[in-house]
Amino acid sequence: MSKVTPPAHCTFEPDDWLKLAAQWHPVARAMDIAGAPVKAVLLDEQLVLYRIGGEVVAARDVCPHRGVPLTLGFHDEAGIVCPYHGLRFGEGGKCNRIPSSPGQPIPAKLNLSTFAVEERYGLIWVCLAPDSERPAKLPVMPHWQTAGFQQINCPGFEVNGFAGRQVEGFLDVAHFAWIHTETFADANNQQVPDYQAVEREYGFEADYWSTVGNYPASSEFRAPEGFKWLRHFEMHLPFTATLTIHFPGEARLVIMNAASPVSARKTRMFAPIARNFDLDIPVEDVYAFNQRVFEEDRLMVETQMPERLPLDLSLEAHIPADRSSIAYRRGLKKMGFGDFFLV
To answer: Is 121 helix (H, G, I), strand (E, B) or coil?
Structure first.
């Protein structure tokens, strides 16, 4: 692994960048990394992703020879090939071919600058600067490996806003009746029953009981009269949350909201889903419904001011329904984050 520093033109404060670089962030769906180099951006760092021997390599998207982006190249059976002079990079980012000098020993300086990679929940996770003394843990997704649960990985999409703002919106339970009435919520069911956020080692969790249903508005299904829906949130700091929704009976739906900070002002969202019902519905329908829900949130997230997430609680007003939001901000503050990005 390479020693990393904030990239040129970084949009984050240096201290915050280093703290974020020590965490795991998703950068792509695993199913999208196949026969060609794939571009990704994480914390303003330009990356190239490719698969070799079944393993995924994440490296800086630059050929160490003359600086051409490797995502302009192609993949053969032994690695990715730079389009400028044909240098090829295989397992671990090591250069394994110099076409113009085939007999010359290959110096280590020609190897790529690579980063730590994990493949989990159908996503490729990257940690730019692991902390050897206090290594970060990958977030946990309930029921992903549970028998009887279907695994779905929705296409990623970009939001022109800060990852922290997007995550806070996912945790918010008071906006259902105002933002999500076209998909699942009831405009006349506005009251937020009392709930608590409980601190955990990874962040916090919250159980939210209410009569707000989660069947699509177009669905013929409805919960029995008086049924209380449980929405169990688990916030894995800094930017990944899971929501487990308890439907009537034993039906469960788990959504992971994994917000990847492309930059301080752009976020790429990933949403793995696990469920044990409606297994016959085409995944394309699940993709479409999930996209509609997140699109309903887009305008709010992209227009919030200030753009950054104020961790000083005195800077904004709060209402009782904000318990998760307050716990989120306190958790980030406890991790030592500041203003997150340069104004």
So the answer is: coil
Whole-number CA gyration radius for the chain: 22
CA gap 141, 164 in Å, rounded = 19
Measured CA to CA, the distance from residue 12 to residue 172 in angstroms comes to: 25
| pLDDT 10s digits, 233-282 | 999 999 999 999 999 999 999 999 999 999 999 999 999 999 999 999 99
Domains, the chain, in order of start with CATH, read 14-127 (2.102.10.10), 150-334 (3.90.380.10)
Q: Identify whether the C-beta of residue 107 lies closer than 8 Å to the C-beta of residue 93.
A: no
Q: What global pTM score does this model have?
A: 0.95
- Is 313 exposed, middle or buried, given 0-12, 13-18 or 19+ CB atoms closer than 10 A? middle
Residues 63-122 have pLDDT tens digits of: 999 999 999 999 998 999 999 999 999 999 999 999 999 988 999 999 999 999 999 999
Amino acid occupying residue 110: L
